[in-house]
Amino acid sequence: MKYYSTNGKAPLASLETAVVQGLAPDRGLYMPERIDRLPADFFQSMGEMTFHEVACRVASAYFGEDIAEKELREMVCDTLSFPIPLVRVREDIYSLELFHGPTLAFKDVGARFMARMLKHFNQETEVHVLVATSGDTGSAVANGFLGVKGIRVHVLYPKGKVSRIQECQFTTLGRNITALEVDGNFDDCQALVKSAFMDGELNSRLRLTSANSINVARLLPQSFYYFWALAQLHHLGIRENVVVCVPSGNFGNICSGLFAKRMGLPVSRFIAANNANTVFFDYLRSSRYEPRPSIPTLANAMDVGDPSNFARILELYGHSHSAICADISGCVSTDQQIAETMRQCYEETGYMLDPHGACGYRALTQGIREGETGIFLETAHPAKFLQVVNERVPAAKVTIPERLAAFMKGHKQTVPMSRDFADFKEYLLTLSK
Ligand SMILES: *Cc1c(COP(=O)(O)O)cnc(C)c1O
């Protein structure tokens, strides 16, 4: 399978090139050249299949031409080492719990898969993965790559600006993971990483790569769990009128769902749930896309003012606003509505949402129609936002799960770093010796 750039000015790339480069040379995002429909017998039988069986069928549609079946199966099973259950919240609404992985958020799936794919393509030289983080991405990538041979990860994060829970998840790991505590803000971290990728000398001495969310190796495996969600509904005898709601920031997660629909996933429509960052919602209403600076909200992993995967959604629908609107509707939740939804859902159903899932659940309660079954993606465990949830819904008494607490017992190890590129370059050059 070849991959083309959404900007249309780069040559077709192999899977390996798309994964190792991340971004196309014309700065566009890679798209698979074809998205094949899965055969009818798969949809008939998926209700009886296991999670790994479902995921392997989907993986082979994307990657089967490029990676041998046995190896691909190992990558998939190794990635999906935790369950993704569909849990009933109320009569017509289910939560797809994507938070049972090592860092308690859905990004574990993409990060774990990408680490294994990068290792597959890189048997010879050592690769250095650089990742700037404001919190969640760093932990998913660091844990996804932990212990993967031939890969070293350098996480740059703004000193004093991430929560202690988040910090523990990438500063206590050791082994092939190094945390760099940058004396600056997130933008400084990102600028350091960008400068490193553009530096000729560094790139001639080290193999550098990025693990950000636009990489196809992080994006495509997210389709696995959409099929698994529907398989679980089939198992319950529900086969029609399914609506899926995705709390969205950079729109990578929903994009994987839209790809799945193109492969034949029997979902009648999608809802993109947003917080007060409403660029996509406004696009649906006006057909104009007007990026703007993000504003902070309670659902902070969705605080995005210029969603990077918007280009892929446009491409998937041939740049047709009406085609996009036929498959996707939008819903916006303010911080007050997020807090109110968490409290109300807990009181009525006993189910505790995190602030991102609350945007999704609320969008469904607003938008679900008679006869439909709704699934929302619960993208993180509420304990990741302990202060927010315990302040708003004290009755739920959310506590930190054991596997998260384990990180907090670890010993913090960081390399202090200024925001001056010369210092960062010197650090990287010492690695090449
Ligand atoms: C990253 C993230 C999102 C947003 O996902 P996108 O793929 O960027 O749209 C939503 N919720 C949580 C908890 C996240 O970490």
What would you say about this model in short?
With 433 residues, this protein is of the alpha/beta class.
Which characteristics define this entry?
single chain, 433 residues, alpha/beta, six-stranded mixed sheet, five-stranded parallel sheet, 20 helices, globular, binds pyridoxal-5'-phosphate
> What is the mean pLDDT?
95
Unreliable stretches = none
Q: Please indicate the percent range of residues in DSSP E strands (runs of 2 or more).
A: 15-25%
For the largest beta-sheet, the strand count, sense and barrel status come to:
6 strands, mixed
Tally of strands? 13
Measured distance between first and last alpha carbons: 37 Å
Q: From the helix content, strand content and strand pairing, which structural class follows?
A: alpha/beta
Please state how the strands of the largest beta sheet are arranged side by side: 3-4-12-9-10-11
Fraction of residues in H or I helices: 40-55%
Bound molecules: pyridoxal-5'-phosphate
Radius of gyration: 21 Å
Please count the helical segments.
20
**What would the principal axes of the Cα set say about the shape?**
globular
Overall description:
The chain is of the alpha/beta class and 433 residues long. 45% of the residues lie in helices and 15% in strands. The two termini are 37 Å apart. The model has no long low-confidence stretch (mean pLDDT 95). The site of pyridoxal-5'-phosphate (PLP) has 15 residues, from helix 12.
Topology:
Elements: E1 3-5, H1 15-21, E2 30-32, H2 40-45, H3 51-63, H4 69-79, E3 86-90, E4 93-97, H5 107-121, E5 127-132, H6 136-145, E6 151-158, H7 164-171, E7 177-182, H8 186-198, H9 200-205, E8 207-210, H10 216-219, H11 223-235, E9 242-247, H12 252-262, E10 269-274, H13 279-286, H14 310-316, H15 321-327, E11 328-332, H16 335-349, H17 355-367, E12 373-378, H18 386-392, H19 402-409, E13 415-417, H20 421-431
Helix pairs in contact: 3-4, 3-11, 4-5, 5-6, 6-7, 7-19, 11-12, 16-17
The structure holds pyridoxal-5'-phosphate.
The site of pyridoxal-5'-phosphate (PLP) has 15 residues, from α12.
